Amino acid sequence: MTVHDKRLARSHDDILEAIAAALDIPPGKFEEAKQRYEALGGWLDRPESTLADLDPAISPHGSFLLGTVTRPLTDADEYDVDLVCRVNGSKAALTQKQLKDAVGYEVALYARARNMAQPEERRRCWTLNYAEGAQFHMDVLPALPDAQRYQAQLRAKGFGILAADGDLSGHAIAITDNQRRDYAVISDDWLQSNPYGYAAWFRGRMRVRLTEAKRSFAARERITASVDEIPDYKVRTPLQQAIQLLKRHRDCMFAEDGEHKPISIIITTLAAHAYNEEASLSAALQTILMNMDRYIEEREGIAWVSNPVNPTENFADKWPEEPRKRDNFYRWLAQARQDFAQYLRASPYDTIPAELEQRLGPSLVKRALNSVMPGDGAIGAPALLLGVGHDAELERARHAVDAIQSSGSQSRPWVR
């Protein structure tokens, strides 16, 4: 993943990139987690495994797959590594309970062989807890391939083009859920998920910048391999960094109300929709904050944040029954708009406003500043005046920020 270089800061982007780098999982910790889940995959697929005939495979999903992992708020908190354990079984031969128990049995054997705590059963997964020094745990989700049924359902609901795109719909899975009535009986009606289709969509929203980031990484590290051979996790794009900053801002703002904070999948989806391949982090943040709520639909009076690879799924489905979640999303968005606007438009690059510093974490911000500003006392111009204001999106952002400065926090101050 990207390691921020040690050059002195000269712009808002240098500071924001340093903060995003400080938020990212350290490369050594990422490699440790990667080695651990690969070791688990090797255990599940060893010749003696009771799952060996089903060809089990472990792979990450969620923020580890998307490159938007954010450092926990405190050292006492852990990284949550989400994994899929996909086996080549059939719903005609396995119940959800049988699959989950079979995966749980092998995960428990793995834990016992390494003197680890007994795995904990969750509603849909098994949680494998490592020693405190590891600072992460792994949620292992049992799953079966289910692309044909997923694509058939998309076609039946009028999304034939999406169903025909193998990258977006060809890797769907059926997952276990011990709260379902059919959990212990043979049934074709399992819950479905499509984390790898979502990841393909997400990468498509930053394709240009991802390629550029890999080229820059190859040049910096003097790597002669082709860009396609550089793993995605080695680099970060402005979209990924913006999401990391926004998630951190959310985490700090709702540190005392985690149950009702805006969920990461909503922030990630809306940010990816709004992103327009901006080359800098400051430009990406402004465009995203200005536009992200435009992608919240209203369907028969219900707020709807569509899953981009399954438009019938609403990521905001909890909002109607818990209006506080919807209110908190808009409250957070208004605050994020104001806090980042105050920095990007009204503050020199080396002066983080107290409000933004508090909502990103004072110790983390100071550590990031120290990494790029040792003994540097130069004062920089606001980011929108650094030669990037010719872009149409940034020009609209400039006017929107001016409106914020003159009128204060509003419910949706960045809407054009």
Provide a concise account of the structure shown.
With 416 residues, the protein is α+β, with helices and mostly antiparallel strands. It is 46% helix and 11% strand.
- The geometry reads as globular
- Low-confidence residue ranges: 376-381, 383-394, 404-416
Structural class: alpha+beta
Helix content: 40-55%
Oligomerization state of this entry? Answer: single chain
Largest sheet report: 7 strands, mixed
Q: What percentage of amino acids are in beta strands? A: 5-15%
Distance between the termini: 35 Å
Instruction: Return the string of H and E elements.
Output: HHEHEHEEEHHHEEHHHHHEEEEHHHH
Helices and strands in order:
Blueprint: H1 12-23, H2 27-44, E1 57-60, H3 63-66, E2 79-86, H4 96-113, E3 120-121, E4 126-129, E5 136-145, H5 147-156, H6 160-164, H7 166-169, E6 173-175, E7 191-193, H8 195-204, H9 207-221, H10 238-253, H11 264-274, H12 281-291, E8 297-299, E9 302-304, E10 306-307, E11 310-314, H13 323-346, H14 354-360, H15 362-372, H16 392-407
Helix pairs in contact: 1-10, 1-15, 10-11, 10-12, 10-14, 11-12, 12-13, 12-16, 13-16
Question: What can you tell me about this protein's structure?
Answer:
There is one protein chain. The chain is α+β, with helices and mostly antiparallel strands and 416 residues long. It has helices at residues 12-23, 27-44, 63-66, 96-113, 147-156, 160-164, 166-169, 195-204, 207-221, 238-253, 264-274, 281-291, 323-346, 354-360, 362-372, 392-407, and strands at 57-60, 79-86, 120-121, 126-129, 136-145, 173-175, 191-193, 297-299, 302-304, 306-307, 310-314. The strands form 3 sheets. Strands 1, 2, 3, 4, 5, 6 and 7 form a 7-stranded mixed beta sheet that branches. α1 (12-23) crosses α15 (362-372), α10 (238-253) packs antiparallel against α11 and α10 (238-253) crosses α12.
